[in-house]
């Protein structure tokens, strides 16, 4: 696989702040590691206020609108959703490599709120990725994803982090 020093920026877009300190610590660690390889940014969109008073579909729709406002023309948008396509880590590294070769501006991975994504956002996405058949909290997915992003980058570089 090729690894390009000047590649697109990768973003992780989330709804709400990461709450638990152990998750923040892990995310910071992998964020620092990732930044050694590529431009990377985590963007936390504020959670809806008074969301508990909204019907579930209205909450999901409003979160989707807030997320869509963050997308720029040319972004490759990848939703992290339990019903998306599953990949093994080497396949994910190949997926990353393919995206880096497109020359687009940004590769944006999105973690929605606790109830998932609106259908309109799913239709707009370039790809829907599942990290597992199991369901994880939207908080935990953040840490699992940044670890997998780092793992994918090390696979692309032929480094020894991933053992197979």
Gist of the model:
The protein is an alpha/beta fold and 164 residues long. The protein has helices at residues 21-35, 56-68, 89-100, 119-124, 138-157, and strands at 9-15, 40-45, 76-86, 106-111, 127-130. The two termini are 16 Å apart.
List keywords for this structure.
164 residues, alpha/beta, Alpha/beta knot, 5-stranded parallel β-sheet, 40% helix, globular
Fold topology:
Blueprint: E1 9-15, H1 21-35, E2 40-45, H2 56-68, E3 76-86, H3 89-100, E4 106-111, H4 119-124, E5 127-130, H5 138-157
Question: What do these coordinates show?
Answer:
This protein has 164 residues and is of the alpha/beta class. It has one domain: Alpha/beta knot (3-Layer(aba) Sandwich), CATH 3.40.1280. The protein has five helices and five strands. It has helices spanning 21-35, 56-68, 89-100, 119-124, 138-157; strands at 9-15, 40-45, 76-86, 106-111, 127-130. The chain has a five-stranded parallel sheet with strand order 2-1-4-3-5. Strand 1 (9-15), helix 1 and strand 2 form a beta-alpha-beta unit. The longest helix has 20 residues, at 138-157. The model has no long low-confidence stretch (mean pLDDT 90).
Full CATH superfamily name: SPOUT methyltransferase, trefoil knot domain
Strand fraction equals 15-25%
The count of helical stretches stands at 5
Uncertain stretches: none
User: How are the strands of the biggest sheet laid out side by side?
Assistant: 2-1-4-3-5
Average predicted local confidence, pLDDT? 90
Helix- and strand-based class? alpha/beta
- CATH third-level topology: Alpha/beta knot
Rg of Cα set: 16 Å
Largest sheet: 5 strands, parallel
- At CATH level 2, the architecture is 3-Layer(aba) Sandwich
CATH class category name: Alpha Beta
The count of domains is 1
Total number of beta strands:
5
Shape: globular
């Amino acid at each position: 696989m090729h690894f390009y020093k000047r590649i697109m920026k990768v973003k992780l877009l989330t709804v709400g702040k990461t709450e638990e300190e152990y998750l923040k610590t892990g995310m910071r660690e992998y964020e620092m590691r990732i930044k050694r390889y590529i431009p990377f940014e985590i963007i936390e969109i504020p959670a809806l206020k008074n969301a508990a008073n909204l019907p579930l579909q209205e909450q999901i729709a409003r979160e989707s609108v807030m997320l869509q406002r963050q997308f720029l023309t040319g972004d490759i948008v990848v939703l992290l959703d339990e019903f998306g396509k599953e990949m093994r880590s080497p396949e994910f590294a190949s997926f990353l490599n393919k995206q880096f070769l497109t020359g687009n501006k940004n590769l944006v991975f999105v973690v929605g709120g606790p109830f998932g994504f609106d259908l309109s956002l799913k239709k707009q996405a370039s790809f829907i990725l599942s990290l597992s058949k199991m369901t994880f909290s939207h908080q935990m997915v953040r840490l699992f994803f940044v670890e997998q992003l780092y793992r994918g980058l090390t696979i692309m570089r032929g480094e020894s982090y991933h053992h197979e």
